[in-house]
Fold these 4 entries.
Entry 1:
Amino acid sequence: MIHEIFPVGPLQCNCSVIGDEQTREAMVIDPGDDIDDVLAIVRRHGLTVKQIVITHAHIDHIGGANKLKRATGAPVLLNVNDQALLKMMDVQASWIGVETPEPTAIDASVTTGDKLQAGSLVADVMHTPGHTEGSICLYFAAEKKLIAGDTLFAGSIGRTDLPGGSFKKIMGSLLGPVLALPDDTIVIPGHGPLTTIGEERETNPFLAG
Ligand SMILES: [Zn+2]
């Protein structure tokens, strides 16, 4: 598995480029900004981007998606429950003081039960509302990796005070499907350092005890 994780944009969203070493098929997750850098990584590994997956429609995760779509022709996958957030990209831009990015449309909505593939690599989609209504996580079972978006961080959880946020729902998502994953699952949060499910189960103040 090729897996490059690198922070993009002013809020340093963790963007992932995931590729199959044999077929060179790839998916890009959360291309919030710095699309030239994303494309350089794609080219360096000789990858073909088959899909662009967005964990949720906050500007720092989705801002560069349409530019990447124009460059690669790959469809944008996002849970439909974040449609309202998509429509207020100008408001989101004003929150963080950046220009409104070019609009992104949902080519297909993804939710629990869907499987996304890049070559032989398979990710299960988990709909994990709470940070936003349409937040998803991607679980690569064979590699024991969770792309968590802004649902789970090392030592913290996603904020729930923005439009569409719900503390009750994020706790349901975390105590339900997320903590059902094995302890040795590597967690790639939407921001900041990597962690594991076991580490968070033990020490995260929102989850421990
Ligand atoms: Zn967010």
Entry 2:
Amino acid sequence: MSSSPLLGELIEALRVLPGVGAKSAQRMALHLLERDRDGARRLARKLEEAAERIGNCSRCRTFSEEPVCALCRNPQRDPEHLCVVETPVDQLAVEQATGFRGLYFVLLGRLSPLDGLGPKQLGLEQLAQRLHSGEVKELIVATNPTVEGEATAHYLAQLARDAGVRASRIAHGVPLGGELEFIDRGTLAHAFGTRHDL
Ligand SMILES: [Zn+2]
């Protein structure tokens, strides 16, 4: 790569992407230069624009160019039901799969002290204030069923209790159409442990 120091720098820059090592970065750089310079220019513009303009919604923390995102501004949404998710992608999944009409709070992570993610980084002070405002009647905790997601859920439940707000946790367990013998033990144990009345 000594003929073009710039190419070397591009390859190095591409390695900021998660999961991209030296080899893939090299492939991407060569592909863009050999076959898709327009794509490269578009990518560069969009990266620049996104990095400059996308901030966080001051209500729900999701990514937004506006100070308050469109969903939070929508007067049709019911502010009494607040659903907490880990990421904007999780928010989209809930939005698309369920008829949920309430509002969201996006943690942009989950409690993970080893990664330096504590209550402050997840905006939980802001969430606590919102719970204490009296607007929210139910906090629906939709963090992932991982060890950290569960720990986060417990923390959130405590926040809700402190504010006198009802907290609920989405159910995890046996997938629809699944058969018990094929389900991993952890999932089945969890489903069994969180069974509900019929
Ligand atoms: Zn918002």
Entry 3:
Amino acid sequence: MSDSNCIYLLASNEHLIGTASGVMTFSAEDLTDIPLIASYPLGLIDHANYRVGIVAEGDLPEQVDQDALCGLRTMLASVEDETTYTLLSSAAQIVIWHESFKFCPRCAAPLHAHSGELAKVCSSCAHRQYPRISPCIIVLVRKGGQCLLAHASKFAPGRYSALAGFIEAGESAEHAVVREVKEEVGITVKNLTYCFSQSWPFPHSFMLGYMAEYESGDITPDGEEILDADWFSASNLPVLPPKFTIARRLIDRFLVDIGETLPEDSTLFFAAE
Ligand SMILES: [Zn+2]
């Protein structure tokens, strides 16, 4: 049952419902005849209570044009402010969590959505399961007026970005920065500075963004995760990550720090600092 006081984002088959203009929202009235398999709270935005509802694939509201639907990255590309980014990122992660964690890790009985909070509860032993978050570091290594950008094997051709990796069990974020840079491109860094963080819904990363200074070593890509890496200055930048990414925000900050003017599409989030 939908709640008449809430605004809903919807998902079916693990995908949020939205177009290139952004994620679609629905009132309880729009969902009168549509059964929600589950729904979870997203929080209060501008005095409105947002929730994400899960519906069966054939149960979409009539105003949804199936041919216009698009993926999460396209929807994120249309985001113009951090509040909308957070809403979309939260909803996407909750949807993946809903689909991926269906049984209790203690006793294997089915989990169901908690009525009051963002959690699932075991139908047998009452164990609570919260959405999974995986902490990662992302770091822009600097050497004077240049920064180190890398082409990872999973990137689109020609695109370069900052280095990133998961924080391992028992490790600090700072240790992870030093280890990842060494492992991925073979250089040693110093003078780490924490900058900002961002939730990254592919599928449930929490990125801690750092700047670091080059100390020693020659760039040697590991050949597996990183296929190429190099030093770039403002005048020879490669294809950069999209504006909604924390990687782009780190690169933007670097450009400001060295006295360069930001490209017009680079101001997202950074403008608020
Ligand atoms: Zn259980």
Entry 4:
Amino acid sequence: MDKYDLIVIGSGPAGRRAAIQAAKFGRNVLVVEKGGRVGGVSVHTGTIPSKTLRETVLNLTGWRERGFYGRSYRVKDDITASDLRARMHITLDHEVEVLEHQFARNKVDTMRGQARFTDPHTIEVEGEIGEVLKFTADKFIVAVGTKPFRPDYVPFDGEYVLDSDDILDLADLPRSIAIIGAGVIGVEYASIFSALDVHVTLIEPRDTMLDFLDKELIADFTHQLRDRGMALRFGAKVEKIEKHGPGSCEITLEGGRSIRSNVILFAAGRMGATPSLNLEACGLEVDHRGRLKVEPMTFQTDVPHIFAAGDVIGFPSLASTSMEQGRIAACHALGETAYDPPEYFPYGIYAVPEISTIGMTEEEIKERGIPYECGVARFRETSRGHIMGLDSGMLKMIFSLKTRRLLGCHIVGEGATELVHIGQAVLNLRGTLEYFVENTFNYPTLAEAYKIAALDAWNRMPPLEE
Ligand SMILES: Cc1cc2nc3c(=O)[nH]c(=O)nc-3n(C[C@H](O)[C@H](O)[C@H](O)COP(=O)(O)OP(=O)(O)OC[C@H]3O[C@@H](n4cnc5c(N)ncnc54)[C@H](O)[C@@H]3O)c2cc1C
């Protein structure tokens, strides 16, 4: 039986970073991955495929040029599902190659197969041809991620009624799609399909979507979706889902409203991928969504030598945060110095248009009773925006009236997920309004919107006390 200092279960963003960090400390590490290739949901069914799909759609449709050439402008007229898949496979191969190289370079052992605990320090891994190997370790990091939630009332068939894994294998582009769940995944796919001129109906039992975002941003985003012809059916539960034949699906909502579409994407929630781990053998329990509870600063579970990181511990369930959690968990597991996870991290929602945000929303600031002022810039006010033909996009910053510190930065529009990092730096370094007013920005750039928004707030803020 092989013995390791650390065994990491799962090779997604959390597992990968944990393993490499541990190897850099000179420990011997094994990563066990049950998927065909390393990389996790992030590389194979989540972040990277969906973002590659988005990029391909924006390129082939000519979406970014429509501000100049009109809504009917197209780069390619008949976009097919195989056009969309081609670029995805190339990107995924590169990602896997880089990751395998990182593991090899850092001398991280990898084992393909499904891991299950047999006692608190031992796992059993079933290989491809049914062979069973045992491994022990002093420490473990569970980074098994999540799987799409598939409730019984949804007649999934992998062809017309799909989850967010199946959608990547669509044989043909549908003419219409109904998407259930207006969370990040649902909203991203809804806006991507709508950019492809597929008729989209987005269904959400709650009255609102993406509640954790600033409301002014969501109002702007919602307006853009409606303006493109997307149907939003909010505030009604799904009562029934029926398939009447190939490409003919029907959803009945509470209250009787019915929605017909070629394809349905069910994107309402994910479950921790913990059932296969036999966690009883190591004394761990999961919650109703299959997730593990950890100590928020160290990522230690209730069993002291077992740590957990990434989506399996729940919120915020991002590849970006999972990577940091994996690294910090490895430091704590191995008794090395670790930094604390930052209080504020950015959220990137790769819808069309992009949304990105960091810090407090206006609603949270009001709730906390902090006196504040907002500054808003529209991308069409910037020269870069004119050059790019942008007719939408906004950046909003919120400052404390008392300290003039930046409290929140919220962006919707082209480049939002990159632009937000300027706001992130100022916010986490406790910078104030003066940073934006007093510094020179490259011109012409969309980053100029920071200066415009800061000046907008400055106009209404009391002068800086000497
Ligand atoms: C459609 C979609 C789009 C997304 N877009 C973004 C985005 O734009 N930005 C962002 O930051 N995040 C995004 N995410 C979230 C992101 O993919 C996840 O936060 C991230 O993948 C979580 O990483 P992880 O390491 O926790 O787990 P995962 O990436 O889920 O990896 C877990 C791995 O563990 C393996 N495993 C499970 N059980 C076992 C076992 N018993 N034995 C061995 N191996 C096992 C699995 O096969 C898997 O490879 C998206 C997710 C989805 C679904």
